[in-house]
Write a structure and sequence with these properties.
The chain is mostly helical. It is about 55% helix and about 5% strand. The protein is built from 28 helices and twelve strands. The strands form four sheets. It has a six-stranded mixed β-sheet with strand order 1-3-2-6-7-9. Strands 4-5 form a two-stranded antiparallel sheet. It has a two-stranded antiparallel sheet with strand order 8-10. Helix 7 runs antiparallel to helix 9. It starts with 16 loop residues before the first helix and ends with a helix.
Amino acid sequence: MTSTVISKPATRQLFRFDIQGLRAIAILLVVIDHMNVVVFSGGFIGVDVFFVISGFLITSHLLSQLRQTGTIKFADFYARRMRRILPASFFVLIVTTIAAFIFMPPLLRASIVQGAIATALYVPNMLLAALGTDYQAETAPSPFQHYWSLGVEEQFYLFWPIILFVLWRVLRKSRRRLAIAVAVLALISFVLCIVVLGRSQPYVFFSLPTRAWEFAVGGLVGIAASTGRVFGKNSVLAAVLGWAGIAVLMITGLIYTDTTLYPGFPALLPVLATALVIFVGTNKQIFGPEAGLKWKPFQYIGKISYSLYLWHFPLLVIPQAAVGLDHPLPVWVKVLLMLVAVGLADLTFRFIEEPFRKNKRITSVRPSRTLLAGLAASVLVVALTAAAAVPLSNFATSSGQSAASGPLTVPPVSTDYVPSNMQPTLEGAPISTSEIHRDGCHIDSNDGTTVNDCAFGDLSSATTVVLFGDSHAAHWFAGVDAWADNAGVRLLAYTKVGCPGIDVRVTSRNAPYTACDTWREGVMKKLDSVAPALVILSYSREDPLASTGDPERVWSQGLTQTRAELPATTKIMVVSDTPEFNESAPDCLSANLTDALACGAPRSSALDSTWAAAQKATTERLGGSYLDLSDYFCTSTECDPVIGNTLVYRDTSHITEVWSAKFGSVFGVEAEKILH
């Protein structure tokens, strides 16, 4: 046993078996997570492991250059990165794009083109952040979504050499000062991560500024290792700490879930654990983690981990999209697909990765030419994708057969094909929202707290009715407004995305939805002064509750509290929630033009009868009216997406404006009973 004090390593390892093993752990965690296996539900921490490893290796390499030459060969560095990353990345990108065009629903082609181009331009993470993608809860992801981490890494590789070079020069080539400066940068990035997390989880998850601290932690390990202040060879303490780091990775992978507020404080554990494993492995530790990480299967998986990361996700996403989200792939099919991914990764490593890294004819090319070739490849992929998008955008959007229009009926008369006269069309479905969406009255921003004064109907009427709630209240606007216009009443609309009108605390993208609380309080003050004759409430049962209690009880208590806060003279009407589907109805229908019923869902799964019964009982106990519209959407057994010649849904649960407008008379009958 040797001293744990820190001394210069006796020998420098030419190859870090422990890091290769860490790569294996990281990719296996990510793959298991994407397979939606209950075990290792926190497998997304594998990406954090990759970030720390990258920060360590790149910083160590650049610092070695700075110490030996006083400068960095920037062109050479960027050329090496391009040869390492782009060939395999672009090859898989091209194959994935072709497969997605062939097998995924035609209506998704525009988003496929968008994702492919963003990936070719090294900014897929920025696109996902701009779209507000919830990576941990996404049920219908893009086949390029996993490229987000490569986007972050590529952006890190672009800026980090410049930052290190400037710091090295400004700090007079002092590694101690450099370490302090990098630590400060890491702290700034981490604080930014924490501060912004409550406002925009997608931005924090996908952006370099809020992820840079993870790379910087790896960089600090690289700086520390370069000073020789490492654990002595075969240190027992080092071995214990190393295995503790592995244990933390396993435990966080097991206990973290898609509801974990991530990144942020929870990300500290896997990041610091990875850094610890790397640091203690700087010198040989015979009893340390390297003993296990050196296992041949780990070394093999680690070797092909980059290509495996590229292949595994489209092999899970595209087949699932092809069969439909209503038919989840069995675990055994996913296992077979991952075995295929391993085979493809092996071939990609042998015939693409290795030649571009080691073939002398390639590596001897001047860095400037390599950089130009890399940029040209990006432009070529973008051009080819954009060119392919033109003919591929011309696809059939109906069966060619028309359908009769008719009034609302109970039960509804479903149409088993996509009518040529369907309203709205499949392409028009996403924008078939409502007037309050188009004029900005509906707050479609998570950060928005403004209480908009939007009035409709007869503005001079002495009778005021309010539509209040989340987007599932907003999608009823067309129907309520049709009645208000006809009845001569004043209609006020207060709706905000993901924010139910009743007094419950909800989360947004795994963060406390404080903007919702602020907005709701503002609306309640407004209602207290307006004293409307009727408040129409509707809200999604899928709004994520912050409370861990019984959902039916929490919702019922929230409704009770809201009723108590409203003016005594105000009546309430609660409208039942709409059916929920696993897959966007327009997307599914675009792949099933002659079999629209394939995009339906059993009533038992599309509706939550227990939740609805609790809401009905609470509403009636409070003297309100519960308007259950479920029988207009579903038969006794099925809920289908096309009724008559009307497309009912514009996504998985929001109804189209055309369908909503049909309910004017239904709202009128119920409202008249309440008001008179």
